[in-house]
Amino acid sequence: MTAELAAGIAQWLRRLGATVTGAVSQLGFAARFLIAVLWHTPHAFRRIHLTLREIYFTGVLSLVIILMSGLFVGMVLSLQGYETLKRYGADEQLGILVALALVRELGPVISGLLFASRAGSAITAEIGLMKTTEQLAAMEMMAVDPLARVVAPRFWGGVISMPLLAALFSAAGIFGGYLVGVRLIGIDAGAFWGQMQAGVDVWPDVTNGIIKSVVFGAAVSLISVFEGYIAKPTAEGVASATTRTVVISSLAILALDFVMTAFMFRGANAA
Amino acid sequence: MNRAAIDLWVGIFVALGFGAILFLALKVGNLLTLDGTPGYRLEASFDNIGGLKLRAPVKAAGVVVGRVEGVQLDTKSYEAVVTLRIDREYQFSKDTIAAINTSGLLGEVYVALDAGGDTTMLKDGDQIAKTQSAIVIEKLISQFLFDKASSPDGGSFGGSEPAKAADKAAEGAKK
Question: pTM for the complete prediction?
Answer without folding.
Answer: 0.74
